[in-house]
Amino acid sequence: MPSKPKIVLRTLFTRFVFSSGIAATIWRLFWRDRVAVMLYHDPSPQTLDAHLTYLKTVCDIVPFSEVNTPGRGRRRAAITLDDGHARNAELLPVFIKHNVRPTIFICSSIVTHPRTHWWMHPGASQAGVERLKRMSNEERLGELRSTGFRQDAAAAESTASGLSAEQIQAMRPYIDFESHTRFHPILTRCDDAECKEELVGSKREIEQMLGGNCQHFAYPNGDYGPREIAILKAGGYRTARTCDLGWNNHKSDPYRLKAFDIQDDSTVEWFAAQLTGITLYLRYLRQGGGLAGRKPQL
Q1: Which CATH number, 3.40.50.1820, 3.30.450.20, 3.20.20.370, 3.30.70.1280, labels domain 4-113+162-286?
Q2: What residue ranges are annotated as transmembrane (predicted)?
């Protein structure tokens, strides 16, 4: 939970952007009939329920497959979640209640297996997750092995962090499952063979798992480049969602779809403020992402 001073600052900021008309102006100029893609990871059912209740008052909520389609004269939003965390299964009643069909981008070699997302292993915390992200994929895996972690090894059932096969089957009628690589490496830190296997191999595994086409992708950590896009195109993916800030329509590059990275524990008021894009834009700008609102790349 954020500290009390941070909560106060967030409250004051939210009141300012809405009372001043800044939020309304941004939505009128940039959202209009475009699609804002919400990016979550592991929110609680209570938080997501509150967010969706609010979101439905300001826009229509559509499936991710409609992000790249022409507008209908109203603001739209799509709900996505990254990684395939086991607790995402607890969100199913919320999605059913609101008649919302989200997309969960899953790590195909972690879900349905007794495995742990690499950054959730104690060894990753000790080594420094952000530091590990900046290593080559081979170096990162080597350092994690020295702490006792192997990405393809079975973990204790109590530490398995991905959705189980039973959970995915129960959620399938209401939720779309798409690709987020096999093991969630930083793709721009992979060599060509590693990158291709993570992208093409994940598509293959998901199609075997679900018995249908896997057509959409989300870049782990939001890192991508021309090589990743070329492999996705050649591999048969239709779209790819980035962590870059912005709205989408039928003219958007389907392999550079933009998103709003929502903090999982946001109050409704702070969620509304994040929908203006101001908070994320300032964070990216401060971290060196430039004026275009692109997530800083590793």
Answers
A1: 3.20.20.370
A2: 12-31
